[in-house]
Amino acid sequence: MSNTNPDFEQDEFLLDHFVGKTPLVRLQRLASHTQATVLAKLEGNNPAGSVKDRPAYNMIMQAEKRGQIKQGDTLIEATSGNTGIALAMVAAMRGYKMKLIMPASSSQERKDAMRAYGAELIESENMEQARDMAQQMEKDGIGLVLNQFGNPDNVQAHYLTTGPEIWEQTGGKITHFVSSMGTTGTIMGISKYLKEKNPNIQIVGLQPSEGSNIAGIRRWPKEYLPTIFDASRVDQIMDIPQIEAEKTARRLARQEGISAGTSSGGAVWASIQLAEQHPDAVIVCIVCDRGDRYLSTGLFSVEDPE
């Protein structure tokens, strides 16, 4: 549909009208054995299918406003998947070339989604190597690295949108916020907002347990810890076993009708542990994406014993 009709305001069609404003739903079965309220923020409802739509849009738009980038420029980013897909979508909309570097072990659906938006995909051995490659490409003059791991615009996106949405949707009754930690932008921005509203809200960050491999979240070596991370904004860090994250992702789909990935399963698993410990709690967790990004991994083909 053409938007040249003067009866239409151009701003009506900007993506920021459709990023965010995601539903918050109560888990009906997985936490039914507890007295607490466990709420899942369904970020897979964003246009490109994940919570990363928020920082991707904000990082590009803020860089535009500062005059750092202009239409036709090349953007570069290291990603484990969701940020890359979101950036590819926004780059396509705004007229940028997008080069994405991601571990070869990432799911085929993620790789295909990036290419579908027109991004060039470069594979690496792991995320640390991907980040190093991105920085070298910028030094070589190939393009600008948005750097989700050190970009304050990543944090700002959640401070301005996700945090206020959660506060409003719970009527200010939230007692615990639970989020997996990758770039840590989500937990940093939401923590900043919620703590300003009520310093007693407990912020719980999740990392994989030793030896676990969970897409999208990391136990970063010290030298690669995201510079946007501020440990003082996280009250508790929980280790998530891979087997529990995967099992809970399957249960989430089969018992709640919510299809999501492994890190989201980990967030729900952690929320249930908290619900068992705090019967009066109102717990909000981030379900960061959709399960269709993991079909080729076999995540949902396993039959768990009852």
From TrEMBL:
Family: Belongs to the cysteine synthase/cystathionine beta-synthase family.
Pathway where this protein functions: Amino-acid biosynthesis; L-cysteine biosynthesis; L-cysteine from L-serine: step 2/2
Pfam family, one: PALP
GO BP term, pick one: cysteine biosynthetic process from serine
Gene field: cysM
The organism's taxonomic lineage, starting at the top: Bacteria, Pseudomonadati, Pseudomonadota, Gammaproteobacteria, Moraxellales
Cofactor: pyridoxal 5'-phosphate
Reaction equation(s) it catalyzes: O-acetyl-L-serine + hydrogen sulfide = L-cysteine + acetate
Keyword Amino-acid biosynthesis among record annotations: yes
Residue numbers bearing the N6-(pyridoxal phosphate)lysine modification: K52
GO molecular function, one term: cysteine synthase activity
Keywords from the named record: Amino-acid biosynthesis, Cysteine biosynthesis, Pyridoxal phosphate, Transferase
CDD domains attached to this UniProt entry: CBS_like
Statement: the UniProt record of this protein carries the keyword Transferase: yes
UniProt name for this protein: Cysteine synthase
Protein EC: 2.5.1.47
Chain positions recorded as pyridoxal 5'-phosphate binding sites: N82, G182, T183, T184, G185, T186, S263
Sequence ranges assigned to domain Tryptophan synthase beta chain-like PALP in this UniProt record: 17-289
Enzyme category, top tier: transferase
